[in-house]
Design a protein that fits this description.
By secondary structure, the chain is an alpha/beta fold. It has helices spanning about 15-25, 35-45, 70, 90-105, 120-125, 130, 160-170, 190-210, 215-220, 235-240, 240-255, 270-275, 325-330, 335-355, 360-375, 380-385, 390-395, 405-410; strands spanning about 5-10, 30-35, 65-70, 80-85, 110, 135-140, 150-155, 175-180, 290-295, 300-305, 310-315, 420, 425, 430-435.
Length: about 425
């Protein structure tokens, strides 16, 4: 199979122009196509704009040629990799792939950057050649900053397609490649969105029963767990409630019938009201947080009180000295400790229950959450940090049984998922394996 040197990117939106930019930075010749050439030309100009431009050297732009689907799709015939990055609409993607299949050359690789549509639904009933050469290459936004790319084969995808993509993505683009399976939302978004959507439910429960506020929730859901400083509500503001709503709708359609995530796919009634009135987050000037800049140069941060349905001035969240790690919080019977046990028991239980459904091993899961969501430790590393017995006690306290993978670990008399300074991991087969 050919080494990837020339790339076609189909779609010049935020993800598409980002992928085009990082490929050009890496020395590739890039063909960027969209509905019209002007859209691509504008995207090309944005590559060198802003405080953190994708392309630092304007000379790199000379490697990017632009065009339209109608006039220039035939030019993909000499491309080694054709990456589709159009809107998340299955019929639009399928129509485009039919046109791509007619224009591409033998041994070219094609992929979709879909974040939630099953690959099998995209290539259903299409020619064998396409089904053997297709994969998902799911980049995270912003492309030039986020390390993670999830690589997902189809049922008939040739092994050399995956190995060629993995080599290019990892060694040429410098990405962190994780190997996922063709399941809903793959790895990162399956666990990360479950954590966020369930977190909105658990947080409001803690507000009503224990008087916690948004600032405290976000303080708990950041440094003590090793998560980014945005916390829960700050991250939802960054992503946008419209995106979270659509994620929930996708999960409603595609999650297995018995998946515990189904309990949380809908926004809470209070949060739903924010969505309905267009209070979506940073993109609309405010969601859960709102920053107001005054004429005298000062700034005021406000927080939306979900119980009172009104804005108030933000308050500093103060955690006690014994609440600075997940382990110490887990052992306290405070309101903060109860919230941490509730949300993290749910998240870690869910993560463990998904292997090997979403990935063959725990290493790919942990890497996905570190590289894609900025967690300092992945779910299984967090279980090791906490202690598997503590998690099992909390799982059983909820009336659940430990997931099969945890039960295999316990039956083998093991107490952690990693050993030997993290160079070996516990597999679904009950054996230890070297991390490659």
């Amino acid at each position: 199979m050919n080494q990837i040197k020339k790339v076609a990117v189909l779609g010049a939106g935020t993800m598409g122009f980002g992928i085009a930019g990082v490929c050009a930075n890496a020395g590739c010749e890039v063909l960027l196509l969209d509905l019209d050439k002007s859209t691509c030309d504008a995207a090309k100009e944005r590559l060198v704009a802003g405080r953190s431009p994708v392309v630092q050297d304007e000379a790199v732009l000379e490697r990017i040629n632009t065009g339209s689907f109608d006039d220039d799709l035939d030019k993909i015939s000499d491309c080694d990799w054709i990456c589709e990055v159009v809107i998340e609409n299955i019929e639009i993607k399928r129509d485009l792939f039919k046109r791509v299949e007619a224009a591409r050359s033998d041994d070219s690789i094609i992929s979709s950057n879909t974040s939630g549509i099953p690959l099998r639904d995209i290539y259903r009933d299409m020619p064998d050649r396409l089904q053997q050469d297709i994969a998902v290459t799911h980049f995270f936004n912003p492309v030039h900053i986020m390390r993670l790319v999830e690589l997902v084969p189809g049922e008939q995808t040739r092994p050399e397609v995956i190995s060629t993509l993995a080599d290019f993505l990892g060694n040429t683009l410098g990405k962190g490649v994780v190997y996922a399976k063709d399941t809903v939302n793959f790895i990162g978004n399956r666990i990360g969105c479950m954590w966020m959507l369930s977190g909105l439910h658990f947080a409001e429960k803690a507000m009503e029963s224990d008087g916690l506020n948004i600032e405290t929730i976000d303080a708990l859901m950041s440094t003590p767990i090793g998560l980014p400083p945005t916390g829960l509500y700050g991250l939802v503001d960054l992503i946008g409630l419209d995106v979270m709503y659509n994620v929930g709708k996708n999960l409603e359609v595609n999650l297995p019938a018995n998946d515990i995530g189904r309990d949380y796919i809908s926004l809470t009634p209070n949060v739903q009201q924010l969505y309905v009135r267009g209070q979506l987050g940073r993109k609309t000037g405010g969601g859960f947080y709102k920053l107001t800049r005054h004429d005298d140069g000062t700034k005021t941060m406000e927080v939306f009180d979900l119980q009172k349905d009104s804005w108030r001035e933000s308050q500093s969240a103060r955690l006690d000295d014994n609440e600075n790690t997940m382990q110490t919080l887990w052992d306290t019977n405070s309101a903060n400790g109860r919230f941490i046990r509730e949300i993290m028991t749910n998240t870690l239980f869910y993560s463990a229950s998904l292997v090997p459904e979403i990935a063959d091993d725990i290493v790919n899961v942990d890497r996905a959450m570190r590289w894609g969501f900025g967690w300092s430790k992945g779910p299984f590393e967090l279980i090791d940090q906490l202690g598997v017995e503590k998690l099992v006690d909390s799982i059983r306290h909820k009336g659940w049984q430990p997931p099969e993978l945890i039960q295999i670990l316990l039956d083998k008399g093991e107490t952690s998922f990693y050993r030997n300074q993290g160079t070996e991991f516990f597999g679904v087969d009950g054996a230890w394996h070297k991390i490659s």
